[in-house]
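Narrative of activities, Objective 1.

The group set out to show that a structural description can be obtained from nothing but a protein's sequence at a throughput compatible with the screening campaign. Below is one input-output pair from the validation batch, recorded exactly as produced.
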Amino acid sequence: MSDVMLLGVLRMPYMLAMKTEFSRLQFQARAAEAADRIEADAAEIERLRASLTDTLYFLERHSNRWDGVNGKPPFEVVETARALLGHNT
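Output recorded for this entry:
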């Protein structure tokens, strides 16, 4: 289900969501779908954080190989990654 439809059902006024057996079943199904998506998103975020951490460590080890022209300086990339990860070093 699209985000717009899912949010519409989840934000439905309580009296409307609980009015009929069908609307209660629909609400319960959408709530379960939302819970599944939250769990999947949390797992994806963890995978991305791990990848970003690996990238940060790689850049720290190889930051002296920047050609001075292409891309951002490694130090800037490392600082951005640290900020995104919440590393205070």
